[in-house]
């Protein structure tokens, strides 16, 4: 008998099984690695979002004092009481400071809006054009929230004899 050359079949089957097993283990490991990579990317995205929120919160914390001051200022501009007699006195004082005559004030029905109340007023003043500009500046610096909805300027009562103008204003006052 001559010795057989080559590899025996059982050894070849074992080697083939080992190679198949290694390929299978490698495939499973590759799948696990890919899942771990996608989980890592998701966690990195979540971390980035959390860092963004943290930066935003830090920014808000830095601005907290300014926001509190603004809130206090807004609370002064929109008091709890919609109307008090000081508004008439204040408008009269503004007219006096501006050298204008405060002719009349008319009130309309108040309207409740989302979180605040509006009181429409109609006021008429008469005097010089520059006095009217001063009154508008006074109203802009007024201690309450006020919005001028309409301003009509026309000749004063004695327009032929003087340089006076008459200003009709529609104004809204606000309260909480």
Can you walk me through this structure?
The protein has 176 residues and is of the alpha+beta class. It has 2 domains: 8-77; 86-175, Alpha-Beta Plaits. The chain is built from 3 helices and 5 strands, in the order ααβββαββ. The protein has helices at 9-77, 86-97, 129-140, and strands at 100-107, 111-113, 116-127, 146-155, 165-175. Helix 2 packs across helix 3 (129-140). The model has no long low-confidence stretch (mean pLDDT 85).
Tertiary shape: rod-shaped
Order of helices and strands: HHEEEHEE
CATH topology of the largest domain: Alpha-Beta Plaits
**Uncertain segments:** none
* Percent in helix: 40-55%
Number of strands: 5
Tell me, rounded to a whole number, the average pLDDT: 85
Q: Which strand-content bin applies to the residues?
A: 25-35%
| SS class | alpha+beta
- Measured between the Cα atoms of the first and last residue, the distance is 113 Å
**Number of DSSP helical runs:** 3
The CATH class of the largest domain: Alpha Beta
User: How many strands, which pairing sense, and closed or not: the largest β-sheet?
Assistant: 5 strands, antiparallel
Number of domains: 2
CATH superfamily of the largest domain: Ribosomal protein S6/Translation elongation factor EF1B
- The second-level CATH architecture of the largest domain is 2-Layer Sandwich
Tell me the radius of gyration.
41 Å
